[in-house]
Write a structure and sequence with these properties.
The structure holds two protein chains of two kinds. By secondary structure, chain A is an all-alpha fold. Helices cover about 40% and strands about 0% of the residues of chain A. In chain B, the strands form 14 sheets. A seven-stranded mixed beta sheet of chain B has the order 7-6-20-19-18-8-10, with helices on one face. Chain B has a four-stranded parallel beta sheet with strand order 14-13-12-15. Chain B has a four-stranded mixed beta sheet with strand order 25-27-26-30. In chain B, helix 5 crosses helix 16 (about 485-490), helix 6 runs parallel beside helix 16 and helix 10 (about 300-315) packs across helix 11 (about 330-345). Classes of the chains: A mainly alpha, B alpha/beta.
Chain lengths: ~220, ~1000
Amino acid sequence: MAQIFPKWINKFPILIVLAVVVFFCSVTGFVWYFFSPWYTDVGYQPVQPVEYSHKVHAGQLGIDCRYCHNYIEVSPHANIPPTQTCMNCHKIVKAESEKLQPVRDSWISGNPIEWIRIHKLPDYAYFDHSAHLEAGVGCFTCHGNVAGMERVTQVKPLSMSWCLDCHRNPVDYLRPIDEITNMGWKKPGDQTEFALKVINKKGINPPTTCSGCHR
Amino acid sequence: MGKKENKYWRSLGQLNNSPEYRKQLLKEHRTENSDDPNKFSRRNFLSIMGASIALAGLAGCRRPVEKIVPYVRQPEEIIPGVPEYYATTMPLGNSAYGVVVESHEGRPTKIEGNPKHPSSHGATNLFMQAAILNLYDPDRSDSVRFKGDKKKIDDFQKFWKEQLEKFDKNKGEGLVVFSESFSSPTMERLKAEFHKKFPRATWVAYEPINDGNLLAAIKNLTGKSLRPNYYYDKADIIVSLDADFLQTESESLSAAQGFVAGRKISSSDDKMNRLYVVESGYSITGAMADHRMKLKSSEIGGLLWALIEQLKARGININVSKPEIKSDFNSQWLSALVDDLMEAQGKSLIIVGRNQPTIVHELALTVNNALNNLNKTVGFLEDKESILPQKLSMPKLSRADTMVILGGDPVYNTPVSYDFQKILASTKNTIHLSEYYDETSQLCGWHIPRAHFLESWGDARAVDGTLSVIQPLIAPLFNGVSDVEFMSLTNSGESKTGYELVRESWSKIIKGDFEKGWRLTLHDGILRGSASEFTKSNLNIKKYSKPRETLYNVDAATNIEIVFQPSLLYDGRFANNGWLQELPEPITKLVWDNAALISVKTAGKYNLENGDIIKLVISEIEMEIPAWVIPGIADNSIHLPLGYGRKKVGRIADNVGFNTYKLFGGPDKMFFSGAVTLTKTARKYKMANTQDHNRMEGRAIFREASLDEYKKNPEFAREMVEHPPLKSIYHDYDYSEGYQWGMVIDLNACIGCGVCTIACQSENNVPIVGKVQVGKGREMHWMRNDRYFRGDENNPEIVIMPVPCQQCENAPCEEVCPVAATSHDKEGLNTMTYNRCIGTRYCSNNCPYKVRRFNFFNYTKELPEVMKMLQNPYVTVRSRGVMEKCTFCLQRIVRSKRTAKHEGRKVHDGELLTACQQACPTDAIKFGNIIEPESTVARKKSTDRNYELLAELNIRPRNSYLARVRNINEKLKRDTYRNDGH
């Protein structure tokens, strides 16, 4: 009697096992990446009510971040500037610009501009900008090169494991206080030495227990 | 088990080991019926919605768009994310309490005491803490109404101008202003203006709970309008006759501070004052007493007389003639008291409760005078600019043509005999300024919404004369009109802003540069140097000959008497405040209800059990109210808390409890005896009571000793429990560096008032859950006050113990959490990570202190929008299915650490206060770094009275207690406090 199944059928069990392994690996990999903030959050780039360009203001004109986000060193929140801050210059500079119409409207009517939030932590995580600046974490570290962005986008996942990467090993992420807003700062050769000195001097001890951020 | 009378017990059920008690004991979290009975059930919902949720699920994956809305023109002083603090004043009757209010971007969230203010000294009482909830109460009236229809304030103004034309002509004939009492320079100025403009008009002030009897007594004896000021800290012997000076009397906050100042001991060599209390109810003052005698309110005058007789026999010159009275009081008790009083002349203090008649107050003042206490422990201050409550003249009121009611709720809180409804009905025009569209408003023609004190300009004078400004923290949320604005409108028909009015008055008050003085006053919260001079000399107590009333001497012990007492809702004005409704009453532990409080013997006499509805009849007026047995109340005395049973206030207040004003005889008759009949009905009423919740059975929990025992054995507290050496199977974590937070609660200073609970609730966004849920043991308070009785059920002592999370270093809760939602941090805190919690409740099961609370429902989700403004933005709002507990105010720790770090220093000792600590009137709670030897908390922990709760379990709690010491008079025999378990 002839064989019903050809011989190559014998490879099936192995193939099935392989297929299952590949399938589960790809599902895991899929979830791992596509369900993580690296996929869901990084790259978020909503259209803002005013076409404000950080590239022009912070990049080309070289305005310091803290001209607009002025309370960042004293408050947990990085404040979004009031319309007043825009008008400081734009009363004179480009006072007729069409793009600035919403800003002028806001200034005249008293209704605030409703910006769309990009960097968002969950409500149960309490982040403090002032503490991080105090320690010497630069804007660039979490927000990327904002000074090069026409429209701001999220470049880091802001996930808990990402936070912990730095909290567990702050040495790589500290910089001198006067370089905080410098988008082009490069780590010097003696980074470790410098960072350890700062850590000792300021008593930097980033919390890795839950109560550091959750309360 | 020790001797029965030596044990601590929480309820009669526990003492007698009743079946109901045993049943409750078995179930800690009663899980039966986890659905809210009033709502569409969760299970129904899921079964119906399951399919649509599955379909809708995918669409829900999108990231929600969140807006950031900055200011257009940013106020200079506001930094988003950094709270601001403003000083203002909370007026309550003739009292004024200086407060400092925390505000987040213009949104007030928390009230603290103003350390510079003489009535608060930085602490708070229940009403001050809870007042912030009233600000955001969505049930407040939001518009002017005329006969129920919504109108505008302009409509009222138009109407009033027409009226004024008439009153301008007839000099105010038929015009009556019916107000609450005030101590406010601006109100007094407006009142003077009113009288000047309308000489024929009448102004009456009414408060259902007031000091009228006491003030009348002082006036009778001195001939002047003076207010008393007691110096508790200077008294060695304090005798309280029916005076709950620690909680319900006027100025209880500074009284508690003074009292405890004379009582705090740091070692066994220190002296402490001794408190004798004679009272008919059981108050927290009675619980603090070193010796307490229960006696009907109607017999207290008699007891005072017996005391006078004994003092006279010892040669004290008291010039009063003897009325016919019985005096078969406990002579041993009295003579021991008299011995003490004789020894402490000039250093003793006799105070009489506001519910006692004028005659008793007069006698007590005479005794204070004879014992040389005047100007030493009792001072008098001139009463300036106060609108004091008066005795009402009803015929005068009923002749009114137009009645302006400034606040208050007379239809609800005046005695039935006044028949205020009828007066309103016969008055042509009635106008009511009120926070709520309440019982009175609904019967008045016009209703004007009243602004909260945090929304209005005003001013107030504290009891010692200190002036302060009331400054608003927020514009009126419900279109409210402030008292001064409304009064000015009443006078002139023109509207002026409160700011203008107050500044107008203050232009005469502030000396020197006005703007500078004004700004300084607003900053400090008080006008510097405005306290009255203590009128020391030329105080002449008139020779006192004959009692004019004999109210106290006719009563037989077997007569039933009824005593009215203010409740946690005060006179009912805080009835729509959920925090106060849900705070277990310190002694009864009842929530969301009031009851007729009776003694064990009275209950036996009428065969009553807790919750049996009784019918009380007084001269044909009857009311029904459930009975609740409180061991230690005077026999045949029935105590009726006021302020409940509202009908038309709001969602919280309405139909909660029983309106005892039905039997109320007026502020000068807070109790009466005879002519009361009590009958038991066959019905029962279910009440929610927390007295048996969260037990820690059979252990030496509350530890106390008499002063003598303490002197003999200063280590008594620690020696009460013997245990083998404490060794853990886990590796010990090293807690020797950085900040290590710990707390000490001094049970000798704690008066058990419950302010800590409300302060915690306000700071930490703790929800209220309602009567039904509390009945199931699901109250959410992070800080609870355990009340224990000790001794004989007919005359027990009471002790109260605040219990927050003890923050164990070896926390049993952490070991059993399957998802590591509760874990330890480096600073020794046992922390909760809400977003990790899956709600197994294992932690709560394993907690020996029962301090963990579970969100059985999403209590905060359905909060009205306006109430969300109340939440502290630095504390996570918890949702359903999550466990929560005290965090030692982690948000405050973080804030202090951040400030310190910015300034390049460590957190100072005493800089960081937890919410409970900051609110505590007697500074009983200390918090700080325990490894810093010089910190207050470390020093307290090293004293001999320090003990840790359940230390024998080797869980190493970071919180500890200082054992209580009672200053027992050796002549009065008393059982020793032994280690006998509870």
